[in-house]
Amino acid sequence: MHAESNNIQDYLKKSEVINYDHRLIVDRCRELEKDMVMKGEKDEISLIKRIYEFVRDDIDHSGDIGAQEVTCNASEVLELGHGICCAKSHLLAAMLRYFGIPTGFCYQKLCSGQEGLNRKVLHGMNAVYLKGLDKWIRLDARGNKPGVDAQFSIYEEKIAWPANKERGEEDHPVIFKEPDPVVVEVLKKSNTRKEMWAQWDLGLKDVFRD
Question: If you classify domain 2-200 with CATH, what class do you get?
């Protein structure tokens, strides 16, 4: 796993998708910060863990709740309370970047549970830079369910689905500074999740580039 850019500032930028200056995001970040201060939790690791668990647990995965709306921008994910894995990664990045914590984007190509080895699906998550330890860790805010138990972990990675190379699954080794443009385009153009998945299949090969 290696960073796309050696300039850590590239992992702190605001954009249309990672819109951490949006009122909803600012308000929620301040609420979480206030709660942490009241509990005496002031270190950066505790802050990252708290925000990660908020996005993982309090924001639903669209598929898990059968939601048809497609969210993309971080503020949309927060406002509607759900998103697919990549959309939830946009919100996690926005909230962490609001606090000046460098956050990037990572992707996997995984086998579809419904169609075995013949169909691959894209899975998105984040990488967060821990300044005190001078290291990146991957965090998967997809949302837990039976068979999925992603956790905040510094030394032993605990993501939703470790890639199984024997099944042809792959981890992209790059920590991207911004969400993949194909991912963003598909999310923004889709009116429903069904429509999104149809476009997702067509765009997957372009997302998982070398």
Answer: alpha beta
